[in-house]
Specification:
18 strands; Jelly Rolls; 3 domains; 5-stranded antiparallel β-sheet; 6-stranded antiparallel β-sheet; alpha+beta; rod-shaped; Heat Shock Protein 90
Length: about 650
C-alpha cells in the first residue's frame, strides 16, 4: 500500500508541476520583451550577448530572388497553413522573411545563427548574399522542420551597422518561418548540441529500440504461436515509430504533403493500438467494442478532413482523439487495478498518465495552438518508447507465468518419472509381444515358401506327368483341384490388411481357369467397401473356404451357365457391415433337404466363426444364392441360430 500511495503521490506532483510550469510559460509568452530593442530580445551571458528575434517582415511571393517590395511586419515564427495557400495551386509556395539587427548589439568574436522549425526547404541570406541552404536541388523533398540548424556567419558578410538577415522558405505544404537566434558561436553551438540531443539523437535511438521490440514481438507471435497481445504490441509499436517519422528524419520518400499529413493519422492509429493492447492486457472481454470505437473515431477523423478540407483542423482532432483513446485505456487499466491490486496494472496506468501529460504538453506547442513553448521540443518521439516500457510488462507477466509453470513442472517431475517407468514396463511387454508376432510372421513366410516350393512344386509336376501320360480325366481334375486348393490356402496366408475386395479378386483370379473350362460366364458385381480391421489370415481362410465351397457346388451340381460374384455395404440389425454372395442360374435345390449335405453346414459354421450371418436361398429351377454378411466391427455375433443346422 505504501508503494502505491507513493507512486500516486509522485504522479500527482508531476501533474501539479506541469500545470504551474505551463501557466508560467503562458504568462512569459504573453509578456512583452525588453523595451528599446525593436524586433528582438537580448540575452546577456558571460560569453557575450545573443539576440532572439520576436518580430520580422514577411512577403509571400512566387519568386526565388529577394523581393524589393510587399513586406509586412508580423510576429516571428509565422506559419501559413495549407488552406491559406490554395490559391497558388500545386506550384511550390515561397515565403520570404526579413530580420534586421545592429552589429553593435553583439560582442566580438565568431558569430552564428541558430534556427529551428522552418518548413521546409531553407535558404539564408546575409546582406543579400546566400550563406546557407539545406537542399542541393530545387526539386529535393525536405521534411526538416524539427531539426535544429546552426549556421556560422562569415565575418566578411557583416556590416558595421544594421544588417539584413533574409530567409527564403519553399514548400508545397505549410510555409513556416521558424525561430532565429544570432550570437556568439560558442553559445549557440552549445544550445544547438543540447537541442539536437533531445530533438534528434535520443528520439532516433529510442525509436529504433522500439522498432526492435516490435520486431521481436511479431516474431514471437508468428513463430512462437503467441497470444494476440503480442501482435498488437508489434503493430502499434511500428505505428508509433512511423508517427514520429518527421521528427527524426529530414528526408521524405513520400513527398512533403504526405509526410506532413500522415503522422497525425498514424498517431491516432498508434493510440488505438495502445487502447487495444490495454484491453488485451487487462483481459477486457469486449474487444469488438474497442475495435468498433477505434474504427468509428477513424471514420470521423477522415470525414472531418474530407468535409472541411482543413488539414490542421483534422490534425488537431487526431491529437485530441489520440489523447481520448489513451485516456480511455488508462481509465480501463485503473478500473481493473482497483479490483486486482496488481503492480503490473498500476505501472501501466502510471505510464499512460505520463503519456497523457506529454500529449497535453505537445498539443499546446503546436503552431496553430501556440499556448506555450514548454520544454522547447516535442515529447511525441518519446511517447511510443514510454508505451513500449508498458508493453514490457506484458512480456514480464508472460515470463513470470513461464517461471511458475517451470516450477510446477519440476514439482511434477518425480511423479512423471514414476509414470514413465510404468509406461516403459508396459512398452517393454508390448515390444516382446511384437517380437513374438514378428517371429510368427517370419515362420509363416517360411511355411509359405516351403508349401509353395515343396508341395506346390510336386503337385504341378504330378499334374504335368498325368497330362503327358494321358491319365484319366478324374485324376487330372483331382490334381488341379488340389493345386487350386493349395493356392487358395496360400492366398489366405498373405496379408490383405482387411481389404475384402482384394481377397475376392484373388479368389476370382485363382478360380477363373476352372470357370472358363467349365463354360461358365462369370459376372463381377463388386462395389467399394471399407476394410475389415479383423480380417486376418485365419478369418480370410474362412471367407475363401465359404466362397470356394459355393463356387464348387455351382460347378459340380448346379448345371448353370452364368455365375455372379459380388459384394456391397449393407447394414444388418442397425450394425454397419458388408454382404458378399455367389449366385448361379442353375437347377437349384432344397437347402434344408438331404441334398444339402455337409457343405452347407460347414459354410454356416465358418460364418458363425466370423461373427457373421450366412444365408442360402435356392429353389427348383430358380438357381442358388449363397451370401454372408460380415460386420465392420466385431463385438457380439450379429446372428445367433435358433436351432442347430
Amino acid at each position: 500500500m505504501k508503494l502505491r500511495r507513493r507512486a500516486f503521490s509522485i504522479v500527482a506532483r508531476l501533474f501539479l508541476v506541469l500545470g504551474l510550469w505551463i501557466a508560467l510559460d503562458v504568462a512569459a509568452n504573453a509578456a512583452p520583451g525588453p523595451s528599446g530593442l525593436a524586433g528582438y530580445t537580448v540575452t546577456h551571458t558571460a560569453l557575450g550577448p545573443s539576440l532572439h528575434f520576436t518580430d520580422a517582415d514577411y512577403v509571400l511571393a512566387d519568386q526565388y530572388s529577394i523581393p524589393a517590395a510587399g513586406w509586412r511586419p508580423d510576429r516571428a515564427g509565422l506559419t501559413l497553413a495549407y488552406e491559406q495557400l490554395r490559391h497558388q495551386g500545386r506550384a511550390p509556395k515561397v515565403l520570404w522573411t526579413r530580420m534586421r539587427f545592429d552589429r553593435a548589439a553583439l560582442g566580438g568574436g565568431p558569430l552564428a545563427i541558430y534556427t529551428q522549425g522552418n518548413r521546409d526547404r531553407l535558404r539564408v541570406f546575409l546582406n543579400g548574399a546566400e550563406i546557407y541552404r539545406n537542399f542541393a536541388a530545387p526539386a529535393d523533398e525536405i521534411v526538416a522542420w524539427y531539426e535544429p540548424i546552426l549556421i556560422p556567419i562569415p565575418q566578411e558578410r557583416l556590416r558595421a551597422g544594421v544588417n539584413d538577415l533574409t530567409v527564403c522558405i519553399v514548400s508545397r505544404y505549410d510555409l513556416g518561418a521558424g525561430t532565429f537566434d544570432i550570437g556568439p558561436n560558442s553559445i549557440l553551438a552549445g544550445k544547438f548540441r543540447w537541442m539536437y540531443l533531445w530533438r534528434i539523437d535520443i528520439p532516433r535511438k529510442v525509436n529504433f529500440a522500439m522498432v526492435m521490440l516490435a520486431y521481436g514481438a511479431l516474431l514471437y507471435w508468428i513463430f512462437g504461436r503467441g497470444k494476440f497481445e503480442f501482435l498488437v504490441i508489434g503493430a502499434s509499436s511500428f505505428l508509433w515509430f512511423l508517427s514520429s517519422y518527421d521528427f527524426i528524419f529530414s528526408g521524405s520518400p513520400v513527398g512533403e504533403l504526405t509526410s506532413s499529413v500522415l503522422p497525425a493519422y498514424l498517431l491516432f492509429l498508434g493510440a488505438g493500438g495502445t487502447l487495444l493492447f490495454c484491453s488485451e492486457f487487462v483481459e477486457f472481454g469486449h474487444r469488438r467494442w474497442v475495435l468498433a470505437t477505434i474504427a468509428a473515431a477513424g471514420l470521423l477523423l477522415a470525414g472531418l478532413h474530407a468535409v472541411t478540407g482543413s488539414n490542421h483542423l483534422a490534425d488537431g482532432a487526431a491529437h485530441l482523439l489520440a489523447m481520448a483513446l489513451v485516456a480511455v485505456a488508462m481509465a480501463l487499466t485503473v478500473a481493473v487495478w482497483r479490483r486486482s491490486r496488481s503492480i503490473e496494472h498500476l505501472m501501466l496506468a502510471l505510464i499512460l498518465a505520463l503519456f497523457i501529460a506529454g500529449a497535453i504538453h505537445d498539443f499546446g506547442r503546436l503552431w496553430y495552438v501556440h499556448a506555450w513553448n514548454g520544454l522547447g521540443f516535442f515529447l511525441q518521439p518519446y511517447d511510443g518508447f514510454i508505451l513500449c516500457i508498458a508493453y514490457l510488462a506484458s512480456f514480464g507477466r508472460s515470463s513470470a507465468a513461464a517461471f511458475l509453470s517451470l516450477r510446477q513442472l519440476n514439482a511434477d517431475l518425480e511423479g512423471r518419472v514414476i509414470r514413465a517407468r510404468q509406461e516403459l514396463a508396459v512398452s517393454e511387454e508390448k515390444r516382446r509381444e511384437l517380437e513374438v508376432a514378428s517371429a510368427i510372421e517370419s515362420e509363416r513366410e517360411r511355411l509359405l515358401r516351403e508349401i509353395h516350393d515343396g508341395i506346390g512344386s510336386n503337385l504341378v509336376t504330378a499334374l504335368r506327368i498325368a497330362e503327358q501320360q494321358h491319365q484319366p480325366t478324374s485324376t487330372i481334375r483331382t490334381l488341379r483341384r488340389a493345386l487350386s486348393d493349395l493356392k487358395i490356402t496360400i492366398d489366405s496366408l498373405e496379408p490383405v490388411e482387411g481389404d475384402f475386395v482384394a481377397l475376392l479378386a484373388n479368389l476370382r483370379h485363382r478360380m477363373e481357369g476352372d470357370l472358363r473350362e467349365a463354360g461358365l460366364k462369370c459376372l463381377w458385381r463388386v462395389a467399394d467397401c471399407r476394410p475389415l480391421p479383423w480380417l486376418d489370415a485365419t478369418n480370410a481362410l474362412h471367407v475363401l473356404r465359404i466362397f470356394q465351397e459355393a463356387v464348387g457346388n455351382s460347378l459340380t451340381h448346379a448345371g448353370a451357365d452364368t455365375l455372379e460374384i459380388g459384394c456391397h455395404e449393407e447394414a444388418c440389425g442397425g450394425r454397419p457391415g458388408l454382404i458378399a454372395y455367389v449366385a448361379d442360374n442353375g437347377r437349384g435345390f432344397d437347402p434344408e433337404g438331404p441334398a444339402a449335405g455337409k457343405g452347407i453346414q460347414n459354410m454356416r459354421s465358418r460364418a458363425r466363426a466370423l461373427h457373421g450371418q450366412f444365408e442360402c436361398v435356392a429353389g427348383a429351377g430358380a438357381g442358388t444364392r449363397v451370401s454372408i454378411w460380415l460386420p465392420y466391427v466385431r463385438d457380439e455375433p450379429a446372428w445367433r441360430p435358433s436351432k442347430s443346422p
